[in-house]
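User: Can you predict the 3D structure for this chain?
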Amino acid sequence: MRKLPARVPENQRLGTILTNPGGPGVSGSAFVASGGQDMSTIVEGKYDIIGFDPRGVNLTGPPTACLNVESKFVLREYQLQLQGAPFPSLDNTSQREHIRRLSAIQAGHDEACERNGNPNMLQSVGTVAVARDMARIAEALGEDGVNFWGYSYGTILGATFAAIKPNLVKRMVLDGVADSELYFNDILEWGRATMHDTSKTLTGFLSTCIDAGPNLCSLAVPPVGSNETQTVDSLRKRLDALYLRLAQEPLIIPDSRTAGSGFLKASDVQSLIFTVLYNPISWGALADALVQVERDNGVTAYNALYGSFAQIEPRSYSQNIYNRSMQSYGTRESLYPILCGDSEYLNMTNDGYSNYIRELGRISPAGEQWALVVGGCRGWASRSRERYTGPWTTKDGFPILFVSLDADPVTPLPSAVKMSRAFGNESATLLVQHGIAHPSLCTVQNIRDYFVSGKVPKNGTYCTP
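Assistant: Here is the predicted structure, written as structure tokens:
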């Protein structure tokens, strides 16, 4: 774990905030190193900020040990990206062949864990175990409860803690809320629910580009041979046309310098868009890359997707300054033992998987990409020793502050509404931020007042940029 100390004198210090950035499988210690200062500024430096690596993640050991070097997981990610989702949807014969190859790549992780992995750790990395660890961390620090700030999957961890340790909840902000009930009980429905607002977010990207205009967003410039003013609808049609063209003939990349030579296919572009929707600060660069692909130059997009694979080194997990097992590349090594172990066993045929991918594609413009995440749990053998399946109606020591955008690519507003209602008005309140690409001083002030003064916003508070 890593601590960013409070900046105020001891007599003004309010305690410790534990944080989790999401995933599951993202390093909390690395998150505090990169983003802890921003969190500290919001709470006026009055808390220590501690990011910890949950069980099976990064520096926390012992490792699950499914493969002996991390570069093997990186190569698996490369195979998965190269195969890609069957997008746009293929004819039945081609779709079956594609799904067979995709399934073989995805099944390799679970089979490696069954053959090589540490079974005790694979059954001990679940969310409930980590929630109990949070109570132990607070106890070791001499705190009488837990202050917590969780994002995305971190909201599932926080909600689980609040449900099983309600008397230990002090201040808890759950930001970008996932549906905890579906996460544990129905992973397929969780996948569907997660995609609820992705289309709104894509519309936000496109409309922000139109509002910025041709001088600031290259995608707002009419394509070659057209003088028509661009609209959200016309940009969607351009994306659809680009997908269709790349599905018929992938774009050859002779030399991308960083990632070498290769080709760019439709699912690559869909994957890139989905990834960047999380990060509005990069939307301008995404627009530039898409225009370049339209003009048969896919180097920027290819580098963004494949450049990291060219940097891998086949070194031992313990070959680092800490001389202990550490993850360096951000693969899905930790994601699946946690996600799949927390959920019910997923028994799904290849045809069922194909249908699910198509279904999510109808729900969301990035649904095929999310279906691949869920599909990684097909046949996953190991289950967490302890799983929490509800209820979520526990009365907590202090009301939880749920925070949600009204359009988010993977943590939709309906999930926040559902979870806040489940805990009830005495134990939870919901703050909604309007707008996608703009920060809100209102949201920051409400979070600050909640942590610093214990002021709970009125349920349904709506913040604008």
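The longest helix spans residues 92-116. The domain at 2-59+124-188+387-463 is CATH 3.40.50.1820 (Rossmann fold).
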